[in-house]
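Lab notebook page, bench 4
Experiment: in silico fold of construct C2
Operator: M.H.
Input chain length: 444 residues
Purpose: comparison with the prior construct
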Amino acid sequence: MQQSLNSGGPGSAQADVTTRDDPSPDVLAAAPWPAPAGAARITRVRTFLCAPQGCPYLIVRVETDQPGLYGLGCASDPQRTLAVRAVLDEYLGPLIRGRDAGDIEDIHRLLHNSGYWRGGSIASNALGAIDVALWDIKAKAAGLPLYSLLGGRARHGAEAYTHVDGADPGEIADKVDAAVEAGYRHVRVQVAVPGVDTYGAAPAGATQARSRADRRGTWDSLAYLHHVPPVLAEVRRRVGDGVELLHDVHERLTPAQARHLVAALADVGLYFLEDALAPEDSAYFGQLRAAGPVPLAVGELYDDVSRYLPLLEQRAIDFARVRIPTLGGLTPTRKLVAACELFGVRTAPHGPGDVSPVAQAANVALDVSTPAFGIQEAARFRDATLEVFPGAPVPQRGSLYPAEAPGLGVDFDETAARRYPAPPPLHHDRWALLRGTDGAAHRP
């Protein structure tokens, strides 16, 4: 029986909470082996939709028959939230009812295969949330922080980077200096390009903000290539060599344009250049490597760990931008991270505001437990988000530290979440509806 604690639609006044209680006593995905004595059995999977950060968070709670023992996962996909939720509520949740919550590998493989036409971001986000919740349960049952189950500490904490942007080198350099003063040694720099709908740079005034919200602005690759390299070079001159600078292209260039950019940034000394190419063009990363010495990062859009393997084998990238929910959870991601270690590639997990504190806690647990870790993207969570997610990871002098409490160390306040309803469907699609100067649809 499906119950909704909110009778309104996605834009209603309360955060939406759905639970499912399957009346059937059968375990649909039963294991062929007996569960250990005292094993925690899954009783139900609940989904929660809220938006304390502004973007929709889809949180999953996997509950067990042991009092107070549950796990949390993040299935957030701001553009396809309700589709991911349907997969959880209608398919994956009912499949695992009655299972031993400790059989993580088996449950992951069964759920992954259960769709037959498997994979894709929607299915992977749904699976990823359940998987992380099961790891949370396992660590709580053991009375250990999650990183202990992943091999223990390999470092004190996860060094993080923050974001700054601006319209001119002086403004940007001042913001970089402020970030350094706050304790960051790594800063992502985004540059506003005059007259261009530029990724990562705040709009200049209310008129541009409205134009960007309605996607009336356009993208101009030539203007970007002309404007950004000299600005980044001047920012480097002003801030000196004591801080690592990063820049995100956000997949907006063709392979030829990306080669030009890599060559133009050769002397800037970037820590890495992110998403210089779209996933569809990943076979060209070897050419980017040959175009200049700029370290390359990619992967936040990947929904299958196998997409990284050719890039690792070819030594074509320096950083794997992993997004744990979209890769299907910790189970496949930790295997990818082990492969990165073997090939000398470092990790740079995705962690902006649309990654909830639950997913960020999973990031940090993995970060501190692997020698392959490079850098962690750090979100600035709002006070409302910290209210809904007690124990959320918060940067301290430019680093994130794992909780010492059992499990992820993050909880979810259902009552507080109700005060922050999610926006209606398609609200967050608009930012991705970008067009070029000729009117053609462009990658966001």
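Observations: The first strand starts at residue 2 and ends at 4. Residues 121-142 form the longest helix (22 residues).
Next step: discuss at group meeting.
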